[in-house]
Each structure stands twice: as C-alpha cells, then as structure tokens.
Amino acid sequence: MMKTKSMGRGKYFITFLLLLSFWLLLSGHYDLFHISIGIGCCALVSLLSADLLFDSASGATHHLVIGKFLLYIPWLVYQIILANIAVVKLVLSPKLKIDPRVFTCKTSLKTDVAKTTYGNSITLTPGTITIDIKDDVLYVHALAGNFADDLLTGEMEKRIITIFQR
Amino acid sequence: MVIRDIIAMILILIGCFFFLTSAIGLLRFPDMFTRMHATGKCDTLAVLLVMTGLIVHHGINLDSFKLLLIVVFIYIANPTATHVLSRAAYRLGMQPWTKDKK
Amino acid sequence: MKAFFLGVDIFLCLMVFLCLYRVVFGPTLGDRIVATGAIGTKTLTILVIIGFLYGRVEMFLDISLAYALLNFIGTLAAAKYFEAKGEF
Q1: DSSP string, A132-161
Q2: Which of A4, A138, A161, B77 has its CA 20 to 30 A from that of C4?
Q3: Torsion of CA B70, B75, B81, B82, to 10 degrees
Q4: Domain span holding position B8
Q5: Where is the domain boundary, A13, A34, A53?
Q6: By CB neighbour count within 10 A (0-12 exposed, 13-18 middle, 19+ buried), where does B95 fall?
Q7: What distance in Å separates the CA atoms of residue A95 and residue A110, rounded to the nearest whole number?
C-alpha cells in the first residue's frame, strides 16, 4: 500500500518535470512572470492527466529502452530513404508497375508500445503500410510482392525485440 | 557562410522533389491505399530534408530546436494518421485495388 | 537566399493546387481526407519558410507547431467520425 502511494506521487512529479522542461524550451521568455505561469499550468495539467502518460503496465526500465531506441533511429532513417527511393521509382515510371496486395503477418511482440513502434516502422519502410492490428496479427498492404517478401524476412521485428526485451 | 547556404539549398531542393513526388503519386495511383503509400512516406522524408536544410541555414539555437521538434512530431503523427485512415477504410469494407480486376 | 525561399514557397503552393485536385474530384471520402492531410503537411512547410522570409522565425515556428498538431488531430477526428458513421 505504502509503495503504490509513493509510486503515485512520483508519477505526478515526473509528468510535472517533463511538462515544465517542455514549457521552458518552447516559451523562450525567462523572467519571473512567464516561469510562474508555466509552473501553475504544468501543475494543473499534471494533476489532471498523469494517468495518461503512465499506465499500470510500465516498468522501471524506461531509461534503458530509450537508450536502445535512439540506436534504432539511424537504421530507421536509412530504411526510410530506401522506401522513398522505391516510391519515387514507382511514381515516376511511365507505366504504373504496381501489384498491390494485402497480407497478414504474425508478430511475437507483446506490449502496446512495441506493437505501435512496429506498426509505424512498417508504414515508414519500403512499400508497406499497416492497415489493422488484431491481437498479434498485422494486416499489411504492400505495393508489390517483393516488398512483402522483404518484410517477411523479419529483420525489423528482431531489431524491435532487442529494444523492448527486459 | 556561402558553403553553408549551398548545402541548405541542396537539401531544400531535394525536399521539394519529394513533395513533388508525393503530389504526383496522389494524382496517379489508382486507389486510396496506394495513394497513402505516396503521401505517408514522401511527405515525411520531405519535411525532414527541408527542416534540416533550414537548420543548416539558421545555425544552432532555440529556433533550430523547435524545427527539430516539428520533424519528430511529423515522424510520429504521419504514419499514425495513415494507419488510422487505412484501418477505418478497411473495416468499412473498402476493397484494395488489385492488378487483375481493374 | 530570400529569392530562393520565395521560389520554394511558390513551388509548394503549386503542389498544394495539385493535391487540391484530389480533394475536389476524389472519388471517395477517404481520398479527400488523405489529400487534405497532405495539403496540411505542405502548408506547415510553407509557414516555416514564410517565417524565414519575413525574419520572424520564432513566431511562425510556434504557429506551424500548432498547425501540425491541429492537422493531425483533424485527420484522426475525421477518420473516427466516418468510421463510426459507417460510410466512406
């Protein structure tokens, strides 16, 4: 009981600090008036909406996950550039050489954050967009068959598993 | 100074090329799902390129941080919006265009 | 550099008109929403570059951040509304 109560306080405090740093970075005015308005607004908002930021499932390994996630971003940017070159080729070719299809793809990811990251990464990488997620089956729309084969090798899923495993 | 401006111009011009691609793809592709391939990807990379060019032109200060914030927000928001729209269309029974049935 | 920014802005306005074709003549409602989102992204870039043209970068950056948020929320709201209503 005692432990859950202290967790609750910490939740509000972390939300408040995040919001206040965001306010200070965005406002650009560093005098007493603006900073006191910021503290008041951030206290009110963190009192009302701390539950949105931290759900009950979140564990204590957040900083680790964020560090691994920053390592994942350069690979994602590289994949995005490849995706855009593929789309540019398809769009600017005089005959439309597309063969769209919808296929399903099972995933072993468990948490919502991991599934969201996976879905958004699929949308940003070559020729595929996520249409629907039901439990652990993803419905993916691909522009052509070879893009679907690229996704089904499962390299991206392995990288996301290494980010989010405990 | 001049070299910095030239790098910024090249980045912004490449970004404009990707904006052009997304607009042409929006006009040429046959149905909603394939059109979302064009807008969801090319717009995202184009915003990244244009904002990077503007950061190179402007230098590092609070404004360039806000430009970076816009890029991060677009990177989260654009795929999510694409996904929500395609899910709504798919659940309401819109059949994706395929090569065979025209 | 100002002439270059002006040229980029005019080019992006032409892109907005290309997307506007899909908004006006798009066969389904989903096409219109997708095209509106694309126009929103282009407008965001136009706003930032206008800030550089006028030399008021900080003001226009705040406006474009708010515009990005509104564009995203608008797309989400339209998708949810028409999904609940059952027509697309």
Answers
A1: EEETTEEEEEESSHHHHHHHHT-HHHHHHH
A2: B77
A3: 140
A4: 2-91
A5: A53
A6: exposed
A7: 42
Minimal-distance CA residue of chain B relative to C43: B47
Domain ranges of chain C: 2-85
A81 and A152 in a single domain? The answer is yes
Q: What is the pLDDT of residues A10-68, one digit of tens each?
A: 778 888 888 888 888 888 778 889 889 889 998 898 888 877 766 544 554 566 677 77
The yes-or-no verdict on residue A4 having pLDDT over 60 is no
Residues of C contacting chain B (CB within 8 angstroms): 1, 4, 8, 11-12, 15, 18-19, 21-22, 28, 30-31, 33-35, 37-38, 41-42, 44-45, 48-49, 52, 57-58, 61-62, 64-65, 68-69, 71-72, 75-76, 79-80, 82-83, 86-88
Domain shared by A157 and A124, yes or no: yes
Distance from the C35 Cα atom to the nearest Cα atom in chain A, whole angstroms: 16
B101 is a domain residue: no
- If residue A105 lies in a helix (H) or strand (E), which one and from where to where? strand A101-106
Nearest CA in chain A to B15: A84
A77, A41: one domain:
no
Count how many domains chain A has.
2
Report the number of distinct structural domains present in chain B. 1
